[in-house]
Design goal:
The protein is of the alpha+beta class and about 350 residues long. The protein folds into three domains: about 100 residues, Hypothetical Oxidoreductase Yiak, Chain: A, domain 1 (Orthogonal Bundle); about 170 residues, 2-Layer Sandwich (Ribosomal Protein S8, Chain: A, domain 1); about 45 residues, Wheat Germ Agglutinin (Isolectin 2), domain 1 (2-Layer Sandwich). The protein contains eleven helices and 13 strands. Strands 2, 3, 4, 5, 6, 7, 11 and 12 form an eight-stranded mixed β-sheet that branches. The protein has a three-stranded antiparallel β-sheet with strand order 9-8-10. The chain has a two-stranded antiparallel ribbon with strand order 1-13. Strand 8 and strand 9 form a beta hairpin. Helix 1 runs antiparallel to helix 2 and helix 4 runs parallel beside helix 5. The longest helix is centred in the first third of the chain and has 19 residues.
Length: about 350
């Protein structure tokens, strides 16, 4: 398949300009574009420029209000309840985590919930920001209802849950924070978009077709299929918990049994132990784990966060590689909105 390679800065500038053309204020477009490209740089293409067409469609159909500013509905010294007002989720989530970090620095910890929030992109982005500020951050986005999701409950035959991701960031004192970022489904739904764009199958053991039969075919999955929770009953239970945390935002419906939302927790490490001392201990511990001899078939032992940093270093040097299908979609939207595409390498 033909590929197109772009410098990250060129692709970020294009992303910003196309959102500005779609009536997004420049300061919001700057944040959204940066977060989208950081997902590509981290190797999470399912949350990168692949999503631009869906965001532009959301603006056109009214689902995304591009100029909306988040509004704090309620707050205390260490809590925040924020209305994203159906604006860009990336912008609202960055606003929320930065306010939460600020509060945690003063009150040792902060808990935040968000309502009316659109897709926020790569969830790990916000946990990483907390870690880089010297805090431990946890971000969850969850929801579900009978027939209201693509993820099967354990033992169920009808999708009922979202992919319900969880991200946790821990500071290490260097440019490689400890970073967990994964869906509680076997794969994120966005990985199926990547598979389609690259004309390849899904991994085995992740999806079933509409009849409940295991499948690796994206066509079968997209025709009424579902994803499985990771770890069978354990991942399913964690997925439910993520939805329950989201319910703290008040986003539940007793009549329909629906619940979900976005939850953040930020802990200031200095509330327990001097940050520098903790980071030294964290790095020593992680390096000790990484020193374990690799098993056959592995080059080295990695810890969460290594993959993203390694991929970012490589892609900053060599560019972001887009499959032709994504490139052609972006070209179509660029022409529609009158924004020139950057030159590929």
């Amino acid at each position: 398949m033909k590929r197109h390679i772009f410098q990250a800065s060129d692709l970020q500038n294009f992303t910003k300009n196309i959102f500005v053309a779609a009536d997004t204020p420049r300061h919001i477009a700057d944040d959204v574009a940066e977060i989208i490209i950081k997902a590509n740089l981290a190797g999470h293409d399912s949350h990168g420029v692949l999503r631009i067409p869906s965001y532009l469609d959301g603006i056109e159909n009214g689902g995304i209000r591009p100029a909306a500013e988040p509004e704090v509905l309620r707050e205390t010294d260490n809590t925040l309840h924020i209305d994203s007002r159906s604006g860009f989720g990336h912008y609202a989530a960055r606003y929320a985590v930065r306010r939460a970090i600020e509060k945690a620095k003063n009150a040792r910890t902060c808990f935040a919930t968000l309502t009316h929030t659109n897709h926020i992109g790569r969830v790990g982005e916000y946990a990483q920001e907390a870690a880089e500020s010297g805090c431990i951050g946890m971000i969850t986005v969850g929801g579900g209802s009978k027939g209201g999701g693509r993820i099967l409950p354990f033992g169920g035959a009808v999708g009922a849950l979202g992919t319900n991701p969880i991200a946790i960031g821990v500071p290490t004192g260097d440019d490689t924070p400890f970073l967990i970022d994964y869906a509680t489904s076997m794969i994120a739904n966005g990985k199926s978009y990547v598979a389609v764009s690259e004309d390849r199958d899904l991994p085995e053991g992740c999806a079933v077709d509409k009849h409940g039969n295991p499948t690796v075919k994206t066509d079968a999955y997209n025709d009424g299929g579902n994803l499985l929770a990771f770890g069978r009953h354990k991942g399913y239970a964690l997925s439910l918990f993520v939805a329950l945390l989201g319910g703290l935002a008040g986003t539940f419906n007793i009549e329909t049994g629906q619940m979900g939302g976005l939850y953040m927790q930020v802990i200031d490490v200095n509330a327990f132990i001097p940050l520098a001392e903790y980071q030294e201990g964290v790095r020593a511990f992680l390096d000790n784990i990484k020193s374990v001899p690799p098993a056959p078939g592995f080059d080295e032992v990695l810890v969460p966060g290594d993959f993203e940093v390694n991929t970012r270093t490589r892609r900053l040097a060599n560019g972001i590689d887009l499959p032709d299908t994504i490139y052609q979609h972006l070209r179509e939207y660029a022409e529609e909105w009158g924004v020139p595409m950057p030159d590929a390498q």
